[in-house]
Write a structure and sequence with these properties.
Shape: elongated
Largest sheet: 9 strands, mixed
Low-confidence stretches: 249-264
Protein name: Polysaccharide biosynthesis protein
Strand content: 15-25%
Number of helices: 21
Structural class: alpha/beta
Number of strands: 23
Mean pLDDT: 78
């Protein structure tokens, strides 16, 4: 009990006081080591003369600067690694050599010499006392924590303010041993912050291997999105868990505690930093308006609805063909918002229903998310894909223009660029439909805005590869990749929802707006990273004992190896938002679109899948 009280007293003592006590202890210890060396050499009680006493006093005066230079007072006793013994031996050895040099110089002045056995005895005794005392103190004072700390040794990536606060919080909890900081700032390398050494990023693998690190904690300010993704790639072959500290803005807002860590999320692997929304653009076209969201029960539509209700619309009509998803979304939104939320069941190709909804609720904004988007499924169901994605968009856009809707925004896809599958072709038709009605609205001077927003893959959305990989990991694998070199652009579902709303404010009518998507992500890398994030290992020829295998199954019909965001990358122009771009309008006229849609309707009525497919690609690629 008394020992426990003593441990707590020492633990609560300020670090500066602990260092002062350690310095005093070393001075006494080195002096005692020399006196004991003489005692052992002569075999009787030893009383030094004045010259010998001066040499004894000089020992700690020589030793202490050496100990400071070797960092013996930077280390925290409770976190002292076993490898530190070699540093202490080096420090003691150099201090003894310097003391011997002093003794030799005094001999040259005519003083009594030092017996040859004394330096050796002094060296052995100093090592035993200096090293032994520190490890004895570590064992005596901190042994109850030893097993728990060694079970969780971590490195903190980023030695900035967030990293330092985190280190303090983890230390105070006595649950994690912070072995060091890792930072790209060369000015910090070799320094000790809070008694913790800062190492360069190049030594990361060595540190993990030598220190037995099982956890790496990344501060969000330390790495950009693409750096974070590359870091995950470096750690694939190492048995280390990656966690991330929430942003300082979230900490100061009270969303998290500084000691609260989250597992690194799939959104952290976008290959870029998330694009912040412009609050002015978000509010501009939503506040106090009646809003209709089609496909509201889907992953993108539902996130869009969650974003909209935070912007104080007058009314939100959620429209979907799926009863269960609309029911769940209505319950969720009603619980968090005072906005009037009206659920509507139906198909966007149902013209009488659409006309009634637009008129009855005096809709001002339409966000058109409803579409069939599973590439293989639409490839097998060409007629229904064309009916829903093309005819449905035409019905909705035409009736919206007729009803005086102020903003109409279509959610399109990067697969609409030079489409190689039916889904992409239908999305290209939808873009052209919106462009046609935008041109008509401009010609009539109605002030209505029709725009398309073109996405890459939305992480976690229905049809995205991410939910598929998650499901395959949950079942123990394997993960199926169509081609090892296939790449895709990814964005978070939050970015998608905010971009849809901002598009209405930025569009000049008939535009196609895109998010600056950064680098395309290699799908195989994404699969490997998701296995790593699940705390599992990759099974391959080099690691047959791994947990999850990745199997290449070959490109499916209609799939591209690399998706594109623009028809003409040189024709892209900026908007008022630095990360949102406007695609160049196509040179071809869309005036003959009504006739093409009429022809498509006739082929759909005949259920002629081959003819529908042919017409879709003929017009989409023209």
């Amino acid at each position: 009990m008394k020992l426990e009280i003593f441990r707590q007293s020492v633990s609560m003592m300020p670090r500066r006081y602990k260092q002062i006590l350690l310095v005093i202890f070393d001075m006494v210890t080195l002096t005692f080591a020399i006196w004991l060396s003489y005692l052992l050499r002569f075999g009787e009680f030893f009383i030094p003369n004045s010259e010998q006493a001066l040499l004894m006093v000089a020992a700690p005066l020589i030793g202490l600067p050496v100990f400071v230079r070797f960092g013996l007072y930077r280390s925290v006793i409770r976190y002292l690694p076993d490898k530190a013994i070699w540093t202490m031996i080096q420090a003691v050895t150099i201090s003894v050599i310097l003391w011997v040099c002093l003794a030799f110089l005094t001999l040259m002045t005519g003083a009594e010499g030092v017996p040859r056995a004394i330096p050796f005895l002094y060296w052995v005794l100093s090592i035993g006392l200096i090293c032994g005392s520190r490890f004895a103190a570590k064992w005596l004072l901190w042994s109850p924590l030893r097993e728990k700390l060694l079970a969780r040794q971590c490195l903190i990536f980023g030695a900035g303010d967030a990293g330092r606060q985190l280190a303090n919080a983890l230390r105070s909890q006595n649950e994690v041993f912070v072995a060091g900081f890792v930072d790209d700032d060369k000015g910090l390398h070799g320094m000790d912050i809070l008694g913790i050494r800062v190492y360069p990023t190049s030594q990361l693998e060595t540190l993990i291997d030598n220190f037995g690190i099982n956890e790496l904690i990344v501060t969000t300010s330390a790495l950009s999105g693409i750096q974070r993704r590359r870091l995950i790639g470096r750690l694939k072959s190492l048995d280390v868990k990656v966690r991330i500290l929430p942003a300082i803005s979230d900490l100061t807002a009270g969303k998290y505690l500084i000691s609260h860590l989250r597992d690194i999320d799939i959104d952290d692997l976008l290959g870029r930093s998330p694009v912040p929304a412009d609050p002015a653009l978000l509010d501009k076209t939503v506040e106090d308006r009646a809003i209709l969201v089609t496909g509201a029960g889907g992953s993108i539509g539902s996130e869009l609805c969650r974003t909209i209700v935070k912007l104080a619309p007058a009314k939100l009509v959620i429209f979907d063909v799926n009863e269960h998803s609309i029911y769940q979304l209505h319950r969720e939104l009603a619980a968090v918002s005072d906005c009037l939320i009206i659920p509507v069941l139906g198909s966007i190709a149902d013209a009488p229903l659409i006309r009634t909804v637009l008129a009855a609720h005096k809709i001002e904004n339409v966000y058109h998310c409803a579409a069939y988007k599973h590439v293989p499924l639409v490839e097998e169901n060409v007629v229904e894909g064309a009916r829903n994605n093309v005819v449905g968009t035409e019905v909705l856009a035409a009736l919206s223009r007729e009803a005086g809707v102020r903003n109409f925004v279509l959610i399109s896809s990067d697969k609409a660029v030079r489409p190689s599958n039916v889904m992409g072709a239908t999305k290209r038709w939808a873009e052209l439909i919106v462009r046609y009605h935008g041109d008509e609205a401009s010609r009539q001077g109605s002030g209505q805005v029709f725009a398309s927003v073109r996405f890459g893959n939305v992480i976690g959305s229905s049809g995205s590869v991410v939910p598929l990989f998650r499901e395959q990991i949950a079942h123990g694998g394997p993960l199926t990749v169509t081609h090892d070199d296939m790449t895709r652009y990814f964005m978070s579902v939050r970015e998608a929802a905010e971009l849809i709303i901002q598009a209405g404010a930025l569009s000049e009518g008939g535009d196609i707006l895109l998010l600056e998507m950064g680098e395309a992500v290699r799908i195989r890398d994404l699969a490997e990273n998701m296995i790593l994030l699940a705390g599992l290992s990759i099974k391959d020829t080099l690691h047959p004992e791994g947990d999850i295998e990745i199997v290449t199954v070959g490109i499916r019909d209609g799939e591209k190896l690399h998706e594109e965001l623009f028809y003409d990358p040189t024709g892209v122009s900026p908007t008022n938002h630095s990360k949102i771009l406007r695609a160049k309008r196509g040179a071809n006229s869309v005036n003959h679109l009504p006739e093409a849609i009429t022809e498509l309707r006739q082929l759909i009525e005949k259920q002629d899948a081959d003819a529908v497919r042919k017409l879709l690609f003929e017009y989409a690629r023209s």
